[in-house]
Automatic annotation (TrEMBL), chains A, B, C, D:
Binds 1 zinc ion per subunit. Zn(2+) binds at C47, D49, H108, C111. One of its GO terms (biological process) is carbon utilization. It catalyses: hydrogencarbonate + H(+) = CO2 + H2O. It comes from the Bacteria. Signal peptide: none annotated. Belongs to the beta-class carbonic anhydrase family. Reversible hydration of carbon dioxide. This is Carbonic anhydrase. It is an enzyme of class 4 (lyase).
């Protein structure tokens, strides 16, 4: 079989439905967005997980959010070493070119990436420790979060690590000079959010207490 | 000001609206998705651009698509060098853990990242050539696409480069051993799509001709 | 002639077309559905009528809906008397084993079964009153709906009886203990829909007013 | 919460897409079908299982097939005892009123109902033996099929029982006088089909050998 194939028919049908309804209703706005360029108010960094629907939760319309999604919504620290850094490129584009007013890091419950990090750091997933594991090397970003976990039972520690994935990313964002400058000039603010996918809960990181409180 | 601040009120309000309607309607299904884990049928690699709405175009519901979004929907080649590769980690998770049946690379018109690559490769954006430019280093992935552009006017060449961003990503996907194996075993197929955001058009890469045709 | 014969050729041809296209496109997903079992989000109870296409209306893909179809989309009341109750078995399987999140009762216009019930209850179809009439005995389920029809002309009363077929089924569903429990625990919700096959209209039962309103 | 609720929004959206495309394309035909009544060529008895898509496999258009779906595609024997027999009512309506030319019993692999029958008859599912088990009492229809299973390993016997679900239904169909008459007059033929959902295979019961052969 060819590796590359045409779009499966069921998705083609859904597209035609979208075109005849949502697109038809919004044609003039979409044209303006195309002609004048995007002007998103916020960047969202969220997880690839199929159960996290930032556009649904925030009723997001086309043009509103610049969205980067990766495993476990992680931002690495600033490392201008000439290598490929997809997340850093996305952050740079959002802040330096699009001049978004907010960066929202959105974590979530039952995160497979965080689970992998927990297992790896606990010595229970040696395959993730290997140099060739892309997931393992990516989740290394969260190791500092694992190391400062409080004692406790496993469920508590895993939830704490999901929270740490958000805190570590926010800390790493502040290592980028262009972000520090934008924050200092009050052109940009950062936000940490946690979504409980089973209960639909949304929690925001309260900077004074460094705790997550319900929105 | 604190760099980290609570969620802006307008987003909190939208969330409360979502919770009272969409979440309330689907509570039991979302709980099952949380308890039993996700089982997405496809992975989508699309751009962070706020005007590209894969979930809207495909009427995607929670649980259906594993979505990675980065600048210009690029996939780098396989490089298991122990460095951080967020896109490769997402692809590895989708194929090796979630065993998705499809990977869809979704490109789009008026892509700022592709424009940057075009300018950089044409010598018109020296700042992107610098080692410290995350965007420039990320867009290096697309250089092989630029080099094989046909002669022609600028508009034609830019459209061709947007198409190349999809082809290059599909080629790079095939450099990952676990993807080659899954394709060979007929467990996975790859798909290239192009969305014209002004006209709402959707084009699929036809493997026999290597051209994009309307869906 | 043998009563049992091989598949007519025109259907064999259609199957071969499906196998070469739809199945080939979705082979890996269908295999996963087979290996891992179904996890449908909703059960649909609809009529056998060839003009009611629930999979088409909802763009349903393999794996999405557990579909029971009988004459006039009726659900009988809970009667655990040891007799054969095919509809009750389907409901039990959907709720207790598959744990669907929704049961949708989908009625429709020009329903032959409802027409038969109307004629029978009006004394115009004595053959349906006979003990040996399977259709008549099945449509007895809808008698309570006929008895509460408002006065009016025949067309209005027949439409009202089609609506009653949906209401009676929803009421009967709530006589099943396992459904009452699932509804009480917020694991299950019930939905009444009416499809006008000539005009393509879809109406949903609004619980506060007990009236059907356009979707 | 109210047990009955309006249609979930994601299904409303899909409906609107269908209305704007499929319905719009076929409006005049759907109106004729509504005005002149259905005239289906065949009745299909298939399983409720979400993975069995008779309309997809046969490219079925609105108006073509009168479809009854129940657990394990079973037809009970003729029992005109005045009780409610939903399947018998559907068969009666198809043959006596709609005068279909074919009845197709479509079974499938990995059938949960057949599995339940196998377990029950093997003494491994005492809960299905209880009088109050709707599934158990429904699957009693297949007991004669279990009793004539050949010796062999479990996988072979389960596949054989899935085949028996089709044979038993065809045999039971022939106990209905109006079916015997229609078959004798060559107005009706019966067909047994088996669908392997993992491999997309379709098998037809060959009456001379009483074996299933690929279509």
């Amino acid at each position: 079989m060819e590796p590359v194939r045409p779009l499966p028919q069921y998705l083609a049908q859904r597209y035609h439905g979208w075109y005849a309804t949502t697109f038809a209703e919004n044609r003039s706005w979409y044209r303006r967005l195309a002609d004048e360029g995007q002007r998103p108010r916020a960047m969202v960094v969220s997880c690839c997980d199929s159960r996290v629907h930032v556009t649904s939760i925030f009723g997001a319309e086309q043009g509103e959010f610049f969205i980067h999604r990766n495993i476990a919504n992680l931002v690495p620290p600033y490392e201008p070493d000439g290598d490929r850094h997809g997340t850093s490129a996305a952050v740079e584009y959002a802040v330096s070119y699009l001049r978004v007013a907010h960066i929202i890091v959105l974590g979530h419950s039952r995160c497979g990436g965080v689970q992998g990090c927990y297992d790896m750091c606990s010595g229970k997933a040696p395959e993730l420790d290997e140099k060739t594991s892309f997931i393992g090397r990516w989740m290394d970003i969260l190791r500092p979060g694992f190391e400062r976990l409080p004692e406790g039972d496993e469920a508590t520690r895993k939830l704490a690590l999901e929270h740490e994935a958000i805190r570590v990313s926010l800390e790493n964002l502040m290592t980028f000079p262009f972000i520090r400058d934008a924050v200092k000039d009050d052109r940009l603010s950062l936000h940490g959010l946690y979504n409980d996918i089973a209960e639909g809960g949304l929690w925001t990181l309260e900077p004074r207490t460094d705790e997550f409180v319900p929105v």
